[in-house]
Amino acid sequence: MKKENLLVMNRRQLITALASTGGLALAGCSSKELPPTYGNVLRMGDLLTYRAFRMLLPARSLAREYSRADITSIPAVGTANPADPHEELYSAERGPLYDRLRTGAFADWRIRVEGRVARPRSFSLAALKTLGSRTQITKHTCEEGWSAIAEWTGVPLRAVLEAAGILPSARFVNFFSYDNFAESIDMLDALHPQTILAYGMNGRALPVAHGAPLRLRVETQLGYKSLKFLERIVVKDEFDDLGKLGDLQNGWAWYVGI
Ligand SMILES: Nc1nc2c(c(=O)[nH]1)N[C@H]1C(S)=C(S)[C@@H](COP(=O)(O)O)O[C@H]1N2
Ligand SMILES: [Mo]
Questions:
Q1: Nearest residue by C-alpha to atom 12 in ligand 1
Q2: Lowest-pLDDT range, 12-21, 93-102, 172-181?
Q3: Are 44 and 75 found together in one domain?
Q4: Alpha carbon nearest to ligand 1 atom 7, residue
Q5: Residues with Cβ within 6 A of ligand 1?
Q6: What ligand 1 atom has the least distance to the C-alpha of 178?
Q7: What pLDDT band is residue 49 in, cutting at 50, 70 and 90?
Q8: What is the model's pLDDT at position 60?
Q9: Are residues 161 and 185 in the same domain?
Q10: CA nearest 55: which of 30, 38, 37, 36?
Q11: Is the residue at 257 inside a domain?
C-alpha cells in the first residue's frame, strides 16, 4: 500500500476514535503534549488534527521531494505585490516600505529575528546566504484545491534561529509580512529540515509575485502557512493568535498538516 494511503486511513481511524470518546480522550491527553495555551485558543477540530498528526508522524518525517521534470507552473495566489494599494491585504504602513526596498533591488532589505532569542538581530540576504542552503522540489497544496510543484532554494529556518540563539523555553515562531498577513508554527515544524526561508525559485531569484525577497516554506502544512514577503520573525514561549493578521480571526485553521 502507498504510504500516503496508509497515512490517510490511520489518521481517519484515529480521529474517529478520538471523536467517539469525545471529551474523555482530550481530558486524558497529557497537557505536556499540547502547545501551551493551545486548548484555550483553538477550536476542537484543530486540536484533534494537531494531536492526530503529532501522534502519527515522527517529528522529522520528510515531505516528498520531486525531480526537475516534475516542476509545473505555479500561480501567484493572494498578494502578488505588497506595494499595490489595490491588493486586498495591502498594508498602508508596510506597503510603501516594500515599494522602496523593491526599487533598490532589496539591497537595504533586512529581516529581524527577535523575541525569545539570546541575540536578537537582523540579517541581510547576503548574511542569510552564509548560513547554509537547501534546495528542494516540493508540492505546494493550496486550501483552495490546487497544487503545484516548484523548486525552492533557501536557508533552513533552523540555522537562522540558531544563529540568533533560541532560548530553551521557546515553543512557537511567528512570522510577519509586508502585507496584512501573519503566520505562526510550532517549534517542531520550525526546526524541520525542509522548513526553509526561500530566496530562490526554480533556479532564479524569488519573483515578487511569489514573495520576494524571502518567503517561508513549510512543506508539512497547507500553502497558506508559507508566508510570502517576510518582514520579521518573532520567537515566542506562548501561542499567539496574531489578532487580525492571523489564521484564527480570519476563519482558517491554525494547524493544517498534510
Ligand atoms: N504574505 C502573504 N503570504 C501568502 C499569501 C498572501 O496573500 N500573502 N497567500 C498564501 C496562500 S493562500 C498561498 S496558496 C500561497 C501562494 O503562494 P504562491 O503565490 O507562490 O503560489 O502563499 C501563501 N502566502
Ligand atoms: Mo492558498
A1: 224
A2: 12-21
A3: no
A4: 78
A5: 74-79, 89, 142, 177, 179, 181, 210-211, 223-224, 226-229
A6: 1
A7: confident
A8: 64
A9: yes
A10: 30
A11: no
Q: Report CA(239)–ligand 1 centroid distance (Å).
A: 22
| Residue 57: per-residue pLDDT | 67
The tens digit of pLDDT for each residue in 182-224 reads: 999 999 999 999 999 999 999 999 999 999 999 999 999 999 9
136 - beta bridge partners? Answer: 152
**What CATH number should be reported for the domain holding residue 209?**
3.90.420.10
Q: Within this chain, do residues 26 and 76 fall inside the same structural domain, yes or no? A: no
Identify the nearest ligand to the CA of 76 by its number: 1
Q: How far is the CA of 223 from the centre of ligand 2 (A)?
A: 5
Q: What is the mean pLDDT of the chain?
A: 86
Q: What's the predicted TM-score (pTM) here? A: 0.84
Q: How far is the CA of 36 from the centre of ligand 2 (A)?
A: 27
Whether 152 and 47 share a structural domain: no
Q: Are strands 111-115 and 230-236 parallel, antiparallel or unpaired?
A: parallel
Q: Is residue 119 part of a domain?
A: yes
Cell numbers representing residue 153 in the block: 532554494
Which is the closest atom of ligand 1 to the Cα of 222? 14
Q: Which domain holds residue 235?
A: 68-250
CA-nearest residue for atom 23, ligand 1, is 224
- In the reported structure, the alpha carbon of residue 67 is separated from the centroid of ligand 2 by a whole-number distance in angstroms of 23
Structural domain total, the chain: 2
The residues with which 148 forms a beta bridge, in sequence order, are 140
Residues 44 and 80 in one domain: no
241-248's contacts with Cβ under 8 Å and 24+ in sequence apart are 241/41, 242/174, 242/182, 242/183, 242/184, 244/180, 245/176, 245/180, 245/181, 245/182, 246/182, 246/183, 246/184, 247/183, 248/41, 248/42
